[in-house]
Amino acid sequence: MKPKEFITLDKITLTEVDADNRFFSASASEIEQGLTSDIYFVRSRDLLSSMGLADTVVTAEIFSSGDGIIAGVNEVLHLLRGRGLEIWALPEGELMGTKEVVMRIRGRYSDFGIYETPLLGILASSSGWSTAAGSCKKAASERTVICYGARHLHPAVAPVMERAAVIGGADACSCILGALLLDRVPVGTIPHAAFLIVGDSVELAKAYDKFVPEDAPRIILVDTFKDETEEALRVADALGHQLSGIRLDTPGERGGVTPALVREVRARLDQKGFRQVQIVVSGGLTPERIGILAEAGADAFGVGSFIARAPAIDMTLDLKEVRGEAVSKRGRIPGVTENKRLVKMS
User: Please, which residues bridge with residue 250 across strands?
Assistant: First the structure.
């Protein structure tokens, strides 16, 4: 596949964008052309071209501003495909340390310099999301973590976030495209809206039991109408051992999901012989709350805003060789930084 031609300074003013008839997110073609790049990278490339220096062979290194779990590498490789570059990187899902070189690129500056903005953004955002998911999974230990973060982000990047969350340690995600990008099945049951339309949790639970395939888990919300413990037992009595789990998503207006609530629901289910019914909790979860609720008896956690709103882990790109000679800006050490963990990608 032939790479897209880069945008040039003289073409920027001629590029028409119909803001009234499109989503404001960049298309794949626009990213590949460099339209999401900072203007000074286009200016630098065109200036160097006018001086006959744009094709200078350089080595660039990208390092992380903090500890975390790296993600976004595969997307960067896709962005740089077909340009004859040598690329080394930490594989996705690997732990990375502060100031560690996570990627090295060698080739003609004209073939990748314009992409500094998007490739740093890809790595920074994806690594931030994967790191947040990893901290949730660490708190949950062997228990299940599902990413429910798509509603907290622009839909153009929601699949990127949910994919990164699974790379970081989440067991599953609910965003359809995010799951498909990983060749997985999206995970989720039914929202409060369906319960409110039907008007009764047990009635909907029975309909859901008949509707879904035999091997699909039956997980039912129990916080819509009645006391959560009462509703959990009503649903359990109705579905019997077909019931896989109940979900607690008690809103903050009623105190949210508390350890005491989880313990009570667990105890009452056990007393009635429904030990197979797992307790899934969601709503404003953080690693700290996950740990507390897990100790109280929760089995699975749906995490949204903590992952979706995680801060990016800033990435920095430096040129470290020009024409094979070691270079650097002031304050940095010239030459390639040794990192035996980097893997040759192309």
Answer: none
Q: Phi, psi at residue 62, to the nearest 5°?
A: -115, 130
Q: Quick one: how far is CA 289 from the chain centroid?
A: 20
What domains sit in the chain, N to C, each tagged with a CATH number? 9-127+311-344 (3.90.1170.20), 130-308 (3.20.20.70)
CA distance 246 to 218: 8
Q: How many CA atoms lie within 13 A of 80 on its CB side?
A: 33
User: Who contacts 254 (Cβ-Cβ below 8 Å, separation ≥6)?
Assistant: none
Q: Where are the alpha helices (DSSP H) in 90-115?
A: none
**Could you tell me the CA-to-CA distances from 183 to 163, 173, 176, 179, 308 in Å, in that order?**
10, 12, 10, 6, 21
What is the side-by-side strand order in the sheet with 86-89? 325-326, 315-322, 57-64, 101-108, 86-89, 343-344
77, two tokens? 């490789």
Give, for all 346 residues of the chain, the pLDDT tens digit: 678 788 888 888 888 888 999 999 999 999 999 999 999 999 999 999 999 999 999 999 999 999 999 999 999 999 999 999 999 999 999 999 999 999 999 999 999 999 999 999 999 999 999 999 999 999 999 999 999 999 999 999 999 999 999 999 999 999 999 999 999 999 998 999 999 999 999 999 999 999 999 989 999 999 999 999 999 999 999 999 999 999 999 998 999 999 999 999 999 999 999 999 999 999 999 999 999 999 999 999 999 999 999 999 999 999 999 999 999 999 999 999 999 999 999 9
Strand partners, 236: none
Is the CB of residue 211 less than 8 Å from the CB of residue 242?
A: no
Residue 317 CA to its chain's centroid (Å): 22
Spatial CA neighbour of 74 closest among 53, 89, 85, 54: 89
H or E stretch covering 231: helix 228-239
Question: For 185, which DSSP code?
Answer: -
**How many Cα atoms within 13 Å fall on the side-chain side of residue 343?**
8
* Pairing of β 101-108 and β 57-64: antiparallel
- Residue 108 β-bridge partners: 57
Q: List C-alpha distances in Å: 61 to 74, 209, 273, 338, 339.
A: 17, 54, 59, 11, 11
Q: Specify the residue for token string 């429910």.
A: 148
